[in-house]
Design a protein that fits this description.
five-stranded mixed β-sheet; membrane; D-Maltodextrin-Binding Protein, domain 2; 18 helices; 19 strands; 2 domains
């Protein structure tokens, strides 16, 4: 039986933005492990109903027991266990799921306990992702054994030696069950440090009442925004670039030809002081202050000013991620549309958002005080939570984009067959998945942590009209470099570079 803790720790900014997603390519599933059922095209659910017929009850119980036993044996063999231990094993778990995602989690952890009755999870809910909370606990030897984090902050934990190199604990065949981009997000220096449960990124959400057809280029974006503004007297776009920390803006920076890091003489350095940054900043400044079609919202997301304007039909277009999808579906219903960010007309490049991931990591014994048997139990938990049935259940419950290859294929089959309910959800999810063709890998090197505040400080000053775009680009790069030097990153090894990857099509 698990114990439950309710954490009052706030969800971090990384959680609220946590990037991105699936790749729309026809990939034949590789070596699929940890599958509880054959791959269906419709969701498989379990129930605990009471059957009045004795024969029926016996058959159901036998099937369930056989399936559970088979799965347990399969997963235990992956972590080097031939049989369950004779005494219970306790593990601590930090859960960073949202409210809607926890509907999935609570059902799935009950299935985990049924499959592994000798493992007793103690769960803390509502823990924000990001390195600070975990790092503080780890340095005191009190980190949880298992933790759900984002791939970028998990990379910093791995570089600090606080979480396991899973490549040393699991067969390489395990990693082939995940989408290539998802497992890349969890790989640093050829070592896998986490198992992904979803992929995420931002897309363009639009209100079909005002925008019947989404823009494909920035020229069309401007034209549509002007038309909406003059016809309906509402904002064409709500994008709070002045409140940015550079997560969403990275997509526009890439569209104008920029990338956050570059290599100079074999050394990786920040590359923010470029014409691409200047042009991207000026583009949004012009839409905001000269054309007056973009509202510089003071807060982002479904709960912020951007989302509130969108759900109240006071703006036509916003840029947000699938994590806020349910709020927009409830408000707009069949009027909700989703599409990839447009091509930047001046460069011909797609605005390319970060493609990120969340997933499960296992702390080192030094960070958590775990025994080797507890480590194995933690690995079993991570494998179970990211296998086919679990990931497909997360998709069906909360619309998280699957990182498991087989679950992704089943999700695509659902959409292609028009099986999602309500029916208008099918084109919305199709538009969201389309964006995956035009994304960039979310840098997961430790140095990335010093980008956010450097960007925010000077972007805020720029959109407040205090400095020019050129001064902002110069200032944010200088601040970035200074922050790295103060943290001991005066030289960045070339192998750590996470280059822009604008297109994941075959």
């Amino acid at each position: 039986m698990r114990t439950v803790n309710r954490s009052k720790k706030g969800i971090s900014r990384t959680t609220s933005i946590a990037i991105v997603v699936v790749i729309i390519i026809a990939v034949v599933a590789g070596v699929i492990i940890a599958t509880r059922h054959p791959a269906p095209t419709t969701p498989t659910t379990s129930s605990s109903t009471t059957t009045t017929t004795t024969t029926s009850t016996t058959t159901t119980t036998t099937t369930s027991t056989t399936t559970t036993t088979s799965l347990a044996q399969t997963l235990m063999s992956l972590v080097g266990l031939s049989s369950p231990p004779s005494t219970p094993v306790k593990i601590t778990v930090w859960n960073s799921y949202s409210t809607s995602e926890n509907v999935f989690f609570n059902k799935t952890i009950a299935q985990f306990e049924q499959t592994f009755p000798w493992i007793q999870p103690s769960v803390t809910y509502g823990v924000g992702v990001g390195t600070s909370q975990f790092e503080t606990a780890a340095k005191a030897g009190q980190a949880p054994i298992v933790y759900r984090d984002s791939s970028d902050s998990g990379g910093a934990l791995f570089a600090a030696g606080l979480i396991l190199n899973l490549s040393s604990y699991l067969p390489s065949s395990v990693f082939s069950q995940y989408l290539p981009i998802a497992i890349k997000d969890w790989t640093l220096n050829n070592s896998v440090y986490g198992l992904p449960d979803n992929v995420n990124y931002i897309v363009m959400f639009y209100n079909k009442h005002f925008v019947p057809t989404p823009p494909n280029t920035t020229e069309q974006l401007v034209q549509i925004a002007e038309s909406v503004n003059s016809t309906y007297h509402i904002w064409g776009i709500s994008y709070g670039a002045g409140d940015e920390y550079g997560y969403r803006f990275a997509a526009w920076f890439a569209g104008f030809g920029g990338q956050i890091f570059t290599t100079k003489n074999g050394v990786v350095m920040p590359a923010l002081n470029t014409s691409a940054m200047v042009n991207a900043l000026n583009f949004w400044y012009n839409l905001t202050y000269y054309l007056k079609v973009n509202y510089l919202a003071p807060s982002t997301g479904a709960g912020g000013a951007e989302g509130q304007l969108f759900v109240s039909n006071k703006t036509a277009i916003i840029f947000d991620g699938p994590w806020d999808l349910n709020a927009y579906l409830q408000a707009l219903g069949p009027n909700l549309g989703a599409a990839p960010l447009p091509i930047v007309s001046s460069t011909g490049l797609h605005a390319a958002p970060f493609v990120g991931s969340t997933g499960w990591v296992v702390a080192t014994p030094q960070a958590s005080g775990a025994t080797q048997l507890q480590i194995k139990a933690g690995l079993l938990f991570a494998l179970f939570m990211t296998d086919y049935q679990s990931d497909f259940s997360l998709w069906n419950t909360a619309h998280d984009l699957p990182a498991n290859q087989q679950a992704y294929n089943s999700a695509i089959a659902q959409i292609n067959a028009g099986n999602l309910t309500p029916s208008y959800l099918n084109p919305v999810m199709k538009g969201i998945l389309e964006q995956a063709q035009f994304g960039q890998k979310f840098p997961n090197i430790p140095q990335m942590a010093y980008y956010w505040n450097s960007f925010h400080q000077y972007a805020t000053e720029f959109f407040a009209g205090k400095i020019t775009a050129e001064q902002a680009a110069q200032g944010m790069e200088k601040a970035f470099v200074q922050a790295l030097e103060q943290a001991g990153f005066s030289l960045l090894p070339a192998f750590a570079l996470a280059p822009i990857e604008p297109n994941y099509e075959d």
